[in-house]
Structures are given as structure tokens and as C-alpha cells.
């Protein structure tokens, strides 16, 4: 009688160990499948996003180039105007400076009254 019980316990332990091994293998398979699905989803997202990013970068580059060209034109026009009529340019600059100073004074006085 005592001889049979250790054999039965051994069989139960073997079955439990086998069950644990199967559970581990199943869990690993599920994890691998989930990782594979995630990898595929990320690759698809990357594939879809790349054209959008490239278009955005191209648009940004074109806009930057256009702004640079416009700034150069404005700078050249200002320089030409200063060369052709320096007195008028100095008077405009002085008037602009005076207007800005008057605005700053008004704002500072309004703050002081609070």
C-alpha cells in the first residue's frame, strides 16, 4: 500500500509539471502572437505616416524658402528706397520711433494709474 502512494504522487506531480509546461508554452505563444501583431501594426502605421511626414517636410521647406525670398525682396526694396531718397527714409524712421515712444509712454502711464 505504501509503495503505490509515492508512485501516484509522482504521477500527479508529473501531470502538474506537464500542465505548467503547457501553460507556459501557451502563454509564450500568445505573447509572441501579440508581439507579432503589434510589430505588423507599427510597420503599417509607419508605412502610412511616412508620405504624410514627407509632404509636411516638403511643405515646410517650400514655405520657409518663400518667406526667405520675400524677406530678401523687402530688404532690397528698403535698401533701394533708402538709397534713392535718404532724407525721406530718415524722416519716416524718426516718425516711427517717435510714435513707438509715445505708445510706450501711454502704456506705462496706464499701468502707473492702476
Highlighted features:
single chain, 114 residues, mainly alpha
Question: Can you describe what's shown?
Answer:
The chain is mostly helical. It has one domain. It contains two helices and no strands. It has helices at residues 4-84, 86-113. Helix 1 (4-84) crosses helix 2 (86-113). The longest helix has 81 residues, at 4-84. The radius of gyration is 40 Å and the shape is elongated. The model has no long low-confidence stretch (mean pLDDT 89).
Radius of gyration: 40 Å
Note poorly predicted spans.
none
Largest sheet: none
Q: What is the overall silhouette?
A: elongated
Can you give the mean pLDDT? Answer: 89
In short:
The protein has 114 residues and is mainly α. It is built from 2 helices and no strands.
What is the element layout, followed by pairings?
Layout: H1 4-84, H2 86-113
Amino acid at each position: 500500500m505504501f509503495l503505490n502512494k509515492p508512485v501516484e504522487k509522482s504521477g500527479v506531480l508529473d501531470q502538474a509539471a506537464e500542465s505548467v509546461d503547457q501553460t507556459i508554452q501557451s502563454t509564450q505563444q500568445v505573447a509572441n502572437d501579440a508581439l507579432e501583431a503589434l510589430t505588423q501594426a507599427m510597420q503599417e502605421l509607419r508605412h502610412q505616416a511616412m508620405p504624410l511626414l514627407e509632404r509636411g517636410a516638403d511643405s515646410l521647406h517650400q514655405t520657409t524658402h518663400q518667406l526667405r525670398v520675400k524677406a530678401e525682396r523687402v530688404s532690397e526694396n528698403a535698401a533701394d528706397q533708402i538709397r534713392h531718397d535718404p532724407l525721406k527714409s530718415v524722416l519716416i524712421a524718426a516718425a516711427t520711433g517717435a510714435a513707438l515712444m509715445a505708445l510706450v509712454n501711454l502704456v506705462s502711464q496706464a499701468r502707473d494709474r492702476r
